[in-house]
Every structure is written in C-alpha cells, then in structure tokens.
Amino acid sequence: MDPIVFAIPVFFALMGLEAWWGWRRGRPAYRLNDAIASISLGTYSQLTGLAGKLVVLAIYVACYEHLRWFTLSPEWWWVWIVGLLLYDFCYYWQHRLGHEVALLWAAHVVHHQSEEFNLSTALRQTSSGFLFGWIFYLPMALLGFPPLVFVVVGLIDLLYQYWIHTEQIGRLGWFDRVFASPSNHRVHHAVNDRYLDRNYGGILILWDRLFGSFEDEDPEEPPVYGTRAPLRGFEPVSANLQVYRQLWQQLREAPNWSTRLGYLLRPPGWRPAGSPPSEPFSMARLHKFDPPHPRGLWPWLTALQFLLLTLAATTLLGLASSGLPWTALLLGCGWCLTGLSLLGRWLETRTPSRWLLLTAALFNLLSLLSLPWWPLSGGLQVWLLCLLLLHGLSAGATAWLSRRFDRAPSTLPEG
Q1: How far apart are CA 209 and CA 405, in angstroms?
Q2: Fewer CB under 10 Å: which end of the chain, C or N?
Q3: In this structure, is the dihedral angle defined by the CA atoms of residues 156, 184, 222 and 281, taken in order, positive or negative?
Q4: What's the DSSP call for residue 161?
Q5: 183 with 174: CB under 8 angstroms?
C-alpha cells in the first residue's frame, strides 16, 4: 500500500489545526473553493500516478540492475544519510529546471497556481510530473543506491515539504539559514519581482545558497502568491493542461524546428528574435479569483461532495495493491476524477456541460452496478455503496441549485 495513504489523516488533521490557528489569530488561512481545488489536484495526482509511479520505479530498477557502477548495501547506515542528501540535491535541480525549462514548467505550474499559501497547497500536485522527473534521479541508480533507499529517502523528502507550506509559522532564526522553512518557501511561491524563481531546496536551503538562487523573505514586502499567468479556475483537468495547451499552440504556429525547441526548452515566456515584446507584468493587475456562489445549502453540498469523493479516492488508493481488478479500479477512478472535475466547474459558478454531467452519471451508475462483483468484504461493499449513493444525491442537488443561481458573468468561456 502507498505510504501516502497512511499520511492522509495526518494531512487533514494538520490542515484543521492550521485553519483553527489562523481563525484564532484573525488571519483566515483557507477559502473553500481554493482548498478543494488544491486537494482535488492532489487526488488527481495520486490516482493517475498509480501507473506512473510503477513506471518510474521500473526505470530506476532497470538502471540499477544493469548500469550501476558500485554496489551499496542498505545495511550500511551511511548509505541512507548520503542517499537522502543526494536525493535532495537531485530534487533541487529537478525543481529549479522545472521553473527554467518551459516543458518542465508545464507540469510543475500546477503546484503554483493557488493564490493562497497553506497546507492544502502542499497537496496541490501535477499529474504529469512522472513523465520527465525520473531523469534527475538516475545518478542515484548509477552510483548504486538500492531501490529501497531511493523510495524511502524520496518519501522522506516529500513528506518534509508538507509543513513548510504555511503562513502561520514565522521566521525560525538559524533554521531558516540551513533548511527549507515556511519563510523560505513563501518566497518560492511568490510572484514579486525580487522573489520570483528563488529558493528551490526541498529539505536543505543550502543548495540555494551554494548555487545563487536564495532570497530572504522581507517583512516589508509580503509575498503575493500564484503565477504571473493566473489560471482563474478550479477544475483539475484545465489546471493540469494550462501550459501544455499554450505550448501546443506555440508549436503549431512556430515557423521552424529551432523555434519549436526554443518554446520547449527555454524559460517560460521565451519568444524568438523579432517577436513583438510581451506585455510587462504588473502586480496591480493581480486579483484573487473568488467568484460568488449560491448561499444556503450550496456550500454544504459542495463540501459533502468533496468529502465523499476524497474518502472514495483514499479507499481506492488503499485497495490498489490488494488485487482489485483493473476494471473496478478504472471505474472507481473514473467516478472520482469526473466527480472532482464537476466540482471544480461548480466552484467556478459554471454549470458543467451536459457531456460532463452524463459522464459523471455514467461512471456512478457503472460503479454502482458492478460493485457486487468487486472482490471486497461485505463491509467495504456497503461503504462504497453509501459513498456512491450519497455522492449521486449531493451532485444532483448541487446541479439543481447551480442552475437556479443567478450567476455573475464568468471570466472563463462556457463549456
């Protein structure tokens, strides 16, 4: 079972603590729409990553088995220490190039789209990072670090970064000078000129100091979060495809392969010589995307749908390694993913297209009808049955309320 499944309750408990502490200090940490969008993207990443993680691990194992230069034993204590340091070093360069190479930014941008900075932002992860991310860790395989060491130190590096996504913890003195910390990472997520593309370290901020990418947080200049090309939406598929769509359009219009490679491999926003200058960035034009929504039951139904889908996704992640048939897994994932997509559209106060509504209803129905053939205990079948039925009812009620709501004009094209 994926260890992340065991960490999910801890993640939510800490988010609750952060929300309470922010409320007590008079500095609210969360917006319902933004938090749901961020956690939905994390759910997308975990469900779509069921296959991606296996591919990455298979590549690492193949390189380790056939190409390694040395043989290191996991029984040697120093292998774990050096392995963690080397992993964090590789992560620094993966992270840095994820900002400096447009094709890699297309995947990483998802993590930066939130205009808030809280623990839910840490869960906001891409669904396509596995496509190229594995390349940066091949040195570990070549040097002979066993797959077990690679997996464990990678998990440690990932889990460490959860707590640094918060505004509720201030400066930490000497700790800020050595390690990635909330203060250092607030800088990383900011779009201010002085903060842009700084502080890439996962565990150690020393890498940034060593390679010239460090910037200290200035109390006189509060960070402004998000991206310079705001997503202005909450739907997970659109969030994952935002920059890929832009790149595709640029590649289609490019006159030659040199220009195409420039669009892919140069920094985001690059333009070939002779292109008209891009519009200068202005902080004054940045406004948080927080559309109005119906009052009354609507927020509660939205939160209920999100809770049901999150519980279902967590259940599927827990069952993925227990022999669940791939057809059942695909149906369950399809139900969760289309449900979260619907929810994202409603959070934008846009009624989803009838095709998206029909797709969600179809996955709900097929999952419901096939449930008796899933090789699960009676208790698990009843649990999933309740989730399916409650989600169907709450989604229907939300759709009805959304159609009755006199919506403000959307900034997005209707789908």
Answers
A1: 52
A2: N
A3: negative
A4: T
A5: no
Residue 97 banded pLDDT, cuts 50, 70, 90: very high
Q: Which of 375, 333, 341 is nearest to 358 (CA)?
A: 341
Provide the pLDDT for residue 415.
35
Helical packing angle, 236-253 and 257-265, nearest 10°: 150
Residue 233 within a domain: no
Highest mean pLDDT among 158-167, 358-367, 403-412: 158-167
> E-strand spans in 176-215?
none
- Among 157, 178, 211, the domain-final residue is 211
Residue 243 has phi, psi (to 5 degrees) of: -80, -30
CA distance linking residue 228 with residue 304, whole number of Å: 32
Q: What digits encode the pLDDT tens for the residues 270-322?
A: 988 878 877 888 888 889 999 887 677 778 888 888 999 999 899 888 887 77
- 365 vs 16, residue with greater confidence: 16
For the question of whether the overall pTM of this predicted structure is more than 0.70, the answer is yes
Name the residue range of residue 335's domain: 298-403
How many domains, the chain?
2
Question: 159 with 306, same domain?
Answer: no
Q: Are residues 82 and 206 in the same domain?
A: yes
* E strands, 13-56, in order: none
List of residues 6+ apart from 69 with CB closer than 8 A: 142, 143, 144
Q: Which of 143, 132, 151, 136 is nearest to 89 (CA)?
A: 136
Instruction: Tell me which residue of 268, 411, 248, 343 sits closest to 43, measured CA to CA.
Output: 343
Same structural domain for residues 186 and 306? no
| Nearest C-alpha neighbor of 117 from the set 309, 288, 303 | 288
| Whole-number pLDDT of residue 351 | 66
Tell me: pLDDT of 147 over 90: yes
CA distance linking residue 92 with residue 234, whole number of Å = 28
Residue 269 tokens, joined: 């926003």
- In a shared domain, residues 12 and 153: yes
Residue 280 included in any domain: no
Inter-residue contact 239 to 106 (CB < 8 Å): no
Residue at 166 is within a domain: yes
